[in-house]
Amino acid sequence: LRSNEVSKNISLMIMDDLRTQLPVWADVVLKDKEAAQYISGIAVHWYADFVPASQLAETHNRHPDKFILATEACNGAEPLEHSPLLGDWSRGDNYAHDIIEDLSNWVTGWTDWNLCLDLKGGPNLAKNYVDAPIIVNATADEFYKQPMFYVLGHFSKFIRPGSVRIGLHFYSKPISYEGVAFSTPTLQRVLVLLNRRTKPMAFSVEDEAIPGKALRIHMEPRSIATIVWNK
């Protein structure tokens, strides 16, 4: 593959399975030096993300030369959930929480399984109907952008390729709020905050590179916000 002009830039990933398999799966495969030379990264799904995200960080620490990519996620995959829920914020909240958790633990990107599905959550040959950021109503010739769609935009629109995650410190211990921060190639700071509480919250954002200044942020209950400023 590497000697072929068409495929020379292809990156091969191993696993493509749940967090529960890490870091053991990566350890077993990558200890084989001959196999390891062909592998660029480790693919992980979100379906068992009750497993601590620290396992992602541990995998990175053991294999820092291999990237970790979240390659599959969708809402509605659990029993009794197999259908779209139009306008349901909790599913957008699930996405935001998982993306923040992944990016905070050395995952380099996050991929939705289905960007677009019909009202039933298909088509799917296995009848494994799930939800998606965009739902198409073919009969009415309409499509609906779900909360998941807008949540994805908070990350994909502002955290551009080449961005580097930077430290984020909360002065009080986060309970129902969380965030992740990046420095972009255009010399901007990007901070994505998620308020999972049913009450509004207020934050003061301080940048150590800009002493003596703070930005006051007010967040509505169960909301997400992205703040961008110049270094």
TrEMBL record:
Cellular component, GO annotation: membrane
Family annotation (Pfam families): Glyco_hydro_30, Glyco_hydro_30C
Domain Glycosyl hydrolase family 30 beta sandwich intervals: 162-227
Any one biological process term the GO annotation gives: glucosylceramide catabolic process
Top enzyme class: hydrolase
E.C. number(s) listed in UniProt: 3.2.1.45
Domain Glycosyl hydrolase family 30 TIM-barrel: start-end pairs: 3-159
Substrates-to-products reaction catalysed: a beta-D-glucosyl-(1<->1')-N-acylsphing-4-enine + H2O = an N-acylsphing-4-enine + D-glucose
Gene Ontology MF, one: glucosylceramidase activity
The entry's keywords: Glycosidase, Hydrolase, Lipid metabolism, Signal, Sphingolipid metabolism
Keyword Signal: yes
PANTHER family in the record: GLUCOSYLCERAMIDASE (PTHR11069), LYSOSOMAL ACID GLUCOSYLCERAMIDASE (PTHR11069:SF23)
Family classification: Belongs to the glycosyl hydrolase 30 family.
Name assigned to this protein: Glucosylceramidase
Organism: Gongylonema pulchrum
